[in-house]
Amino acid sequence: LILFWKGARMIPYFQNKPERLKKLHEILETWIGTPYHHMADVKGRGVDCTKFIGLTLAELGVFTGITKGNYYPPDWNFHGTQEVVLESFQDHIDRYVLPQYQILYHRFEGQELSPGDCLGFAMVGKLTNHTVWLYDESHIFHAFNKVGVHKTTFSRSWKNRLKCFWRIYDI
Question: Is 152 in a helix, a strand, or coil?
């Protein structure tokens, strides 16, 4: 699959660039042990799953920054059929990605995933409400309630909840 953006070929950000993936892994590992806290955004003090993705994208040099405070409602789980977390996360991506990159949303339909993809899961109901980094073929890295930031096995249980993914591209 070859993608184009405004006439330019898009190349996956981590494709054939092991130094970029190494940098992502190094950044992720500096977050280990940061407690989970809804809408927090301070390494070592507290972060939620979506802010964790945004902050690591900023550290990686793909984002200009992140929104401080709440950028989706704290009662997201009471919005029935509206993809509140997914829409807010996508809006955040669109607002902060640097112009030399594109981060595209893909509904998961069995495609091959790549380390460095951001994955979206339906943890509660059928809506996307949790985001993680795909660390490698068999591990994910994320901020999780009551656990904090950690690396865990990308098990069948996780794979069964996978709804979508975002991939970073150079343009």
Answer: strand
Handedness of CA 38, 36, 65, 20 (dihedral sign): negative
106: β partners: 165
Residue 125 CA to residue 37 CA, distance in Å, equals 21
Task: With beta carbons less than 8 A apart as the criterion, state whether 135 and 25 touch.
Answer: yes
* 3-class secondary-structure state, position 114: coil
Residue pLDDT, tens place only, 105-151: 999 999 999 999 999 999 877 888 899 999 999 999 999 999 999 99
- 8 Å CB contact between 49 and 82: no
Question: What letter does residue 26 receive in the DSSP assignment?
Answer: H
Query: Whose CA is closest to 118, among 18, 3, 24?
Result: 24
CA-to-CA distance for 118 and 15, rounded, in angstroms? Answer: 15
Q: What is the DSSP letter of 34?
A: P
Which residue's structure tokens are 């829409």? 87
Burial classification of residue 105, based on how many CB atoms lie within 10 Å of its CB (0-12 exposed, 13-18 middle, 19 or more buried): middle
CB atoms within 10 A of CB 146: 6
Contact 2, 8 (CB under 8 A): no
